[in-house]
Design a protein that fits this description.
Urease, subunit C, domain 1; 2 domains; about 25% strand; globular
Length: about 400
Amino acid sequence: MKPLPSPSTLYVLNDAILFTGEAMVEGHSLLVRNGLIVDIVAHRSVPIGAVGISFADHILAPGFIDAQVNGGGDILFNAAPTAESCLKIAAAHRKFGTTHILPTCISDTPEVTRQAIQAVRESRQKDSGILGIHLEGPHLGLEARGIHAKEHIRGINQEDLRLYTHDSGEIMLLTVAPENATPQYVHALHENGCVISLGHSNALSEQVNSLLEIGASGFTHLFNGMGCMSARAPGIAGVALDDRRSWCGIIADGHHVSAEMIRLALRAKPAGKVFLISDAMPPAASDAPQPFQLCGETIRVENGCCVNAQGRLAGSAITLLDAVRHCVKHVGVELDEALRMASAYPAAFLGCDKKLGKLLPGYAASAVALKPDLSACAPWFKKLPVSG
């Protein structure tokens, strides 16, 4: 049997066009050791003895980062909130270039939420591609809850504050609505180290702005689960577009948001403030997508999206590779910008942009090799020890 390479082996990822997250670079190779990028060097300067891995005819870009993954590979995290589920969901999405995820637990019982948090913490000991958890609810607006079960929607209490305290090194992203998250609680969550995103809300602009002032920094799946904008009532979507500081996640699957509205968001927000999410359900990254149960309803894949019996959207069936492809081919986003929307920009939102989202020295060795037409990909990911 051939011996496995040592962790200290120097790898050279070569023969590809490098997209560093900042620019396209030709004629250079990526040097990787101990799970970190060591350097970018000209082909002629590759050290002797380095283990070469060729990605000829590919673009080598930063691995994708998905902040909203409800499931994948025919697994729903809420239905099986275990470490094993986290690992399988992460592995399913990684095949399509998403090297880092936040498993997402939607509105459920307190017990399921606790199990989900513990499952993520256990899985992170085995897979550093699992960055933490996204709790999308249960503190959402009742009228804007979408597919979320009515009986689970509630306000935040002191017990929740104790539960929503992140462990060292993990990311805890919370989606809340002003209707069920007062400024006092949002400020406390922010002080606890949580990343606060606003969504599933029909709140007035004054309510939304008050939470942005005391810790909220993002908006969950822009335009979806949000009331309509009007001339005198911008609502949560209007505030999201107008606010210069915050980030907006957006589902680019051709069903949740039209191409026109994606372009509008990109024009309205400062550069780098709109990022891609999949909002993936079990059919995503599955070889043979199957119907699944969610909140007591049967969800099926129809015309490439997940819907209930009434045709209401219930998450997506895509990976971030699909979202990048959609942005380039149907929205008119330049390839380098679409790649940033799937890597550098979510890294900035989540506060991990000093180690993820770019292919530069000192960053994690997390990359995806893409065919120029985005028809296929090959991920490259070296697991790192989980640390603070």
